[in-house]
Amino acid sequence: MKDRVIITQGTYVASAVKKDQYPEGNLPEIVFIGRSNVGKSSLINSLTRVNNLARVSSQPGKTQTINFFEVGVKIEEAEERKAFYLVDLPGYGYAKTGKEKRKIWSKFIEEYLLHSPRLSFVCQLIDSRHEPMASDVEMFNWLVDNGLPVLIIATKVDKIGKNERAKNIAAIKRKLGIKEISVLPYSSLKNEGRSDLLDVIGDSLLE
């Protein structure tokens, strides 16, 4: 079946740790955030189908800047092509960095999330194999408390069976404290969930 939303290009634009380093222009921004090693870079590469657009590392905490990628899309019901910034934020939770450095990180991430005028929504990635950790719940609550729209994506679903998947997704909803929240299952390896995520992105670009 043909995808309704097709990504036509994905290019790296900028890395930033402060406002004056953000790229110029008025493109909407869709943000990806998650614990270190949740599979964020793999998901970005799977979504855009651009190999190594986001660098995949086996060492948690490798992304230490806010990385902006310009992504072009063709949406079935739109005459003109659209574009957005895919924004990759540093992983929270475990990282081989001292407390002071983590404080600086969290400050510039908070600054970006609270003050970017172009932010459309945040994709928070949670590893489907485990219950959300305290840092996941804390991040989710912080995003909601600050009025930021959040889409929860359960990563690495290819690594668990169907029954376990249903059970673990229910556990994610329970732990986040919102039963009716929708959780999008995603496998970067098999591109499962890709069309669903593209549909959500397409809808937000048409608003």
Describe this structure in words.
This protein is α/β, with parallel strands linked by helices and 207 residues long. It has five helices and seven strands. The two termini are 25 Å apart. This is Probable GTP-binding protein EngB. Necessary for normal cell division and for the maintenance of normal septation. It holds the Pfam family MMR_HSR1. Keywords: Cell cycle, Cell division, GTP-binding, Magnesium, Metal-binding, Nucleotide-binding, Septation.
What descriptive keywords fit this protein?
207 residues, alpha/beta, Rossmann fold, 7-stranded mixed sheet, 5 helices, 32% helix, metal-binding, GTP-binding, nucleotide-binding, P-loop_NTPase
Query: What does the overall shape look like?
Result: globular
Structural class assignment? alpha/beta
State the helix count.
Answer: 5
> What is the CATH H-level superfamily?
P-loop containing nucleotide triphosphate hydrolases
Along the chain, the helix and strand elements come as: EEHEEHEHEHEH
Distance from first to last alpha carbon: 25 Å
Share in helix: 25-40%
At CATH level 2, the architecture is 3-Layer(aba) Sandwich
Fraction in beta strands: 25-35%
What name does CATH use for the topology? Rossmann fold
**What is the domain total for the residues?**
1
